[in-house]
Structures are given as C-alpha cells and as structure tokens.
Amino acid sequence: MASPCGAVLRRHAAVAVLRAAAAAGDLSKGKALHARLITCAHFDIVLHNNLISFYAKCGQVGLARKVFDAMPFRNAVSGNLLMSGYASSGRHKDSLALLRFFDFVLNEYVLSAAVAASAHVRSYDVGRQCHGYAVKAGIAEQPYVQNAVLHMYCQCAHMEDAVKVFDNISGFDAFAFNSMVNGFLDRGQLDGSVRIVGGMIGEVENWDEVSYVAVLGHCASMKDLVLGGQVHAQALKRRLELNVFVGSALVDMYGKCDRARDAQYVFDVLPEKNVVSWTAVMTAYTQNELYEDALQLFLDMEMEGVPANEFTYAVVLNSCAGLAALRNGNALGACALKTGHWTHLVVGNALMNMYSKSGSIEDAWRVFVSMPLCDVVSWNLIITGYAHHGLAREAMEAFHCMLSAGEVPSYVTFIGVLSACAQLGLVDEGFYYLNTMMKEVGVTPGKEHYTCMVGLLCRAGRLDEAEQFIVNNCIGTDVVAWRSLLSSCQVYRNYGLGHRVAEQILQLKPNDIGTYVLLSNMYAKVNRWDGVVKVRKQMRERGVRKEPGVSWTQVGSVVHVFTSEDKVHPQMDQITVKLEELIDQIKAIGYVPNFAVVLHDIEDEQKEEHLMYHSEKLALAFSLIHTPKGETIRLLDDCKKYFEQMRTMYKLKLTFTHYWCMANLYGSVGLPEEAEGLLRSVPEDLKSRALGGLLGLCRFRGEWGTGEQIALRSFGGESKGPSMQIQYFNGLLNDRLILGNSEKEKTDDEESETRNKKSEYTDEQSKPYEACLAFC
DNA sequence: CTAGGGTTAG
Length: 776
Hints:
Keywords: Repeat, Transit peptide. By secondary structure, this protein is an all-alpha fold. The chain contains 43 helices and three strands. It folds into three domains: 136 residues, Alpha Horseshoe (Serine Threonine Protein Phosphatase 5, Tetratricopeptide repeat), CATH 1.25.40.10; 227 residues, Serine Threonine Protein Phosphatase 5, Tetratricopeptide repeat; 225 residues, no CATH class. It starts with a helix and ends with a helix. The structure holds one DNA strand.
C-alpha cells in the first residue's frame, strides 16, 4: 500500500541501496531495484540523481544518460553527475555536448567539470567561453573553478592566460603550482618551470604526491640530479617512494639524469609495479644504451603477467633500433599488431625509427604509409631516414608532401632537409630554407643547421665561403663544423686552408679520436711532421684513446655481444677453436694476417692475439657455430654507428675508403642490399671506385650475374655507355684484389704511420669474412 | 545526490 509517508521511507531505503550497490559496483542489484522503483516509487530529482550516480559509477554512462533524458526536471547536480560519468569513461566530447541541453543555471560544480572537459579535448575556445560564463556568474574565484581554468589554459598551451590566473591566486595551492609546472614542461619552457619550482621549494611540507611527480619531471627535463636527489630524500621522509606514481617519476628522473642503476634500484623496491613503472625503467635503460637489459625487462614483464601498452612497445622498439636488431624489431612489430597497439602513433613512429636505424628505409616507408594518422615526428623520421640512407631526392620529396599535407616543419625537419640539400649540392635552396622558411614557421636555426650549411658549402667546393660562414655564425667554437671543413679541404686538396683549419681545431682541444685522426692526416699531407707530433702530444694529454671495438650478432632470440679480447663468453673455447680453424683455412688460400689499425703501437708479440680476438671475428665465429648452413648471418658492429655519425651527425666529407669499407662489411655479413643501397649514395666523384668494392665482392663470391646487374643498374642512364660498364666489370675480374689498384686505399687513420714505418697495416680487415663465407 | 591536477614514447 503506497502512502506518502511510506513512499518517502521507501525512497530513503532505495537511495541507501543504490549507494551501496554503486560502491560495490553491483550493477544487477541496482538494476533490479530500478525496475521495482519504476512500478511503485515516487520519483523526485534526488532519486533520479542517485540513479544517474549509480549507473555512472558502474561505468554505464549510457544508462545514466537514459535516466537523465527521461527526467521531467533536472538540476545542476544531475548535470554534474552525468558529466563526471562521461569524464570517467573518457568521453569528454560527449560531456561538453551536454551543455547545450542543460535547462538550469550552471553552478561551480558543472562549470569546473565543463572546463576540465575542455582541457581534456584541448579546446581553448570552449574553455575560454566557460571561463567567461564563470566570471559573469561570479564564481570564477571559487577554488575549484579557478584551478580547473588554470589547468585548462596550461593544457591548451596558453601559458600567458594561465600565468594571469596563477598570479591572482594568493597563498600556496599545490594544485595550481603542479598544473603550472606541468604546463611549462609540456611546452618545453624550462625557464617557466624553474620559476614555479623555485616558488615551491620553501613549501615542501605543503606538497602533495602530485607535486613530487611534477617537480621530478622538472628535474628530469633539466637533468638536475642535485634537486632530484633532494626531492627523493623528501619523498623517503614521507614514505612516498613506494607510491607507484612517485616511484615511476623517480625512475624516470634518474634515467634522464644518466643514472640507470639508481633508476633500477628505485624500481626494484617498488612494492606494486604497473605497466608505467615497467616502461619507465625500460626507458631508463634504453636512454642509457643498455638495450639488451631493456629487452630482457620486457620479457620479465610478460612473465609477471603485466600486459604491455603502446608506450612499452615504443620503448622496446627503440631498444631494437639501438641494437639494429631487425629480427627482434620485426617480431615486436608483429606482437604490437596482434595486440592492437600497432595503430598507435607512438608505436608507428618507433617502428619507423627501428626500420630506419636497422638499414631498411623501405620498411620504414611501408609503416609510414599504413599509419592511420601521423604527426610531425613521423614526417621527420621519414625525411631524416631518407637523408640518412643517402636518398636525398626522396627526402626532399617527402618534405614537399609534408608541406602540402599542412604539417608545420619543426627544428628536426630542417636538419633533415638541409642535410638532403647538402647531399644534392642545392646551395640556393639551402639558404632559402635557412633564411626564409625557417623564419616563416618560427624555428630558430641552431648549431645543427649551421653545420649542415657548412657541409653544403663544402660539398659545392665553396670552401672559403664555408670558412666565412663558420666565423659569421659564431660556430667557430664548434669542432664539428671545422671538422667538416677540414675533411673537405682534403677532398679538394686545398691544403693551405686545411692547414689553417687544423690550427683552429687544435686550439679547441677536442676530445674525440676521429678529429685527431683527421688532424694528423692533414699535417701529414702538408708534410708538417711537427704538426703530427703536436697532435699526438695533445691527444695523450687529453687522454683520448681508441674506443674498444664492439660487435654483435643474433642467434635465435638472443643477441650476443663481443668486445675485442672478449674472454667472458661461456662458449669461448668453441669460438677460439672455430676461429683458428677459419684462419688456417683462409691462410691456405693466400690470406695474409692483417692487424687492426690503431693509433697506439702494438708490441710485436701481441699482434697475433689482436688478430685472434678482434670483436667482429669472435661474433662471426660464434654465428657460424650456431647458424644452420645457408642461413644469412647478420653481423653488425660499431662501424655502422661510426659511419652514420661521420656521415650525418658530423657531416664529414667521406672518402672513397669509408664507403668501400662499409659496403664491404655489409657484403661480408650477408647484407648485399644494404651494401648496394649505400653505394648508391656515394657522391658522383667517388662512384666508380666505390662501385668496385661491390663488384669485387660479387667476383669474390662468383656471383657474376649479380655483379653485371649492379654494374648496369648503377651506371644506367649516366655518363658511361653499356659496353663500357661491362668492360669495367670484366676488367675488375682480372684483378686479384680490388684494392690492389691504388696505394691510397689505406685508412686515413694511419697513413702517416704507415709512411713512416712501412708496416704491414692495411684496411683489408673485411677480407677474411668474405673468404669464410665462400668456404662455409 | 556533486568536483580538480600526476608517471611511460618520438
């Protein structure tokens, strides 16, 4: 029997049950009650609102909406409940769309929800309108509204507006400070975040855990390990280091400050690890070049049953990129496809990066065209990827596509574009991009761009202009720019300028081996042996040594890394036996042992050992033991890394020898496509000689057909006629060794050394591998 | 019957 009093009682009971069901997440209990209420209850706004609240908390925002739509009268509470329902299921757009249907006055609750939704969808316009409404309604000063507005301006990248709101707040409010720090960090405005963090330091006792995360993010961006350590100490004091958010932020901070071990320690003590903390520690490893450890952690994570997300895939793919581990990268790409993460922007970008760094620009392109959406990073990857691979025309074409797609080029874009211009010798275009277009899009040229321009001028043989350019643009203290000029001086045999440049560089006291090699070579060319002595002396003083060689290969799913004189590999005995066997075999067919070219003298008795323990040889012997007959062995080492650095980062003018060695290395480890691709990028003036390297390889392997094809293709449409090409190829067949035709082929390193000592050093290090492959 | 900010990628 329904009486008014009974109805009220029942309504109170129903509200209590709904709240309990919502707290327990018990959808069916609440639904059953709803069904009963429809038949017998007296419905008012409060009961309706409770139903909305219940459905929203159970994640059934669609049902909550049905209740809302069916209400005869609604109030601000109904609106707010529905909006927060949409917010918690991430449907911020739908939440904003509701505003048009609200037939009641918006209060501070609804407005802060609306402003928060605008922040989520990054809609400055809607957010500002809401702010205006709040000002008119006189509730803009309410703390919740004010903070939501402040956060909205930060998210929508209008820091000027945010600062205005921020300045209006009196006293210390953790929320406001946190939003400001994160806003500045997202925009990369470190000066701004320094100011805000400065204001927070005296208020540590008022920080909440989000403050720790924000300030740690600031330390990570600034690489401020001193402040970071202090924040860590404060977190320990308040037992916050075990909080998964704070812990992950600490891991990230240590990783970005180059402290991988500290990052690992923080991670290890975390009692609850989620996918973010796992990914953060993997990132720390990757950024500190501990790629194998990062990949191992990925497996550990899988073992723990924590599913990877798109960021995880991005990180492990970057580890693969660092290792040039094409097979792992491919497999991880397949996993990402299977788990549905492939379509994420970050995964696509990481895949492109991996393929590009592993030498397969075609695959990078395939990923690029199949990505559902791309951003400026994707375009940069494809442009710089093409430029890296010596495909400057394709790089320029991609750049023009980018412009017509309406994407705004960034700092990185112009590095790729200018280096492509340098490869193509497009001086005027280069200056147009530097002086006109970069201004138009608001990118301030940096050292990298100026260095590209130096390379461009050098490439065009305008060495004096290049020198002037260095001086005019105040990059005279940059060793890289001078190095670029110095190597060009050698190419163009301008030893007068070269000598001057060498003196300049010497004054800068560089600390990398490559520069000293160039310098000593330069002095040797002009017969200034006093200069060579000076270079050696400075090198010793600065403690510059040749870096130990590292090579790696993949057998099954494991990447094995070898260093020179490696003695720790568990299968070292087998490897040594195999290696001795191989060396005996190739000695029998006329191989004369060569020695690694180093700048330091090797004692006679150590020579044989150096030969034996050279890292590439170890990796090769290992691969041969473990790889089925006929399968391709992929062996990569620092040569590739150094080569790419010389070519792209330092913008060095490479000599024929560099290309030859690299192509030969690729060929000898079973990557003839890479060798061919590389040789296609050889500058015109060096082409015929570099081509000889690849043809020689074909000859060595008895691949006549391939050799002929390469000869035809590489010369096709260019200066020489077909018959000449074949003749050239055939002519090479008669030489026992390709390098036999010139004494200039010695590596730049040691030319002076060889001249003095008439020693047995040559650059034919790759030859034994060819022989090995011919045998096995 | 109602509310805010955070960690991982290039």
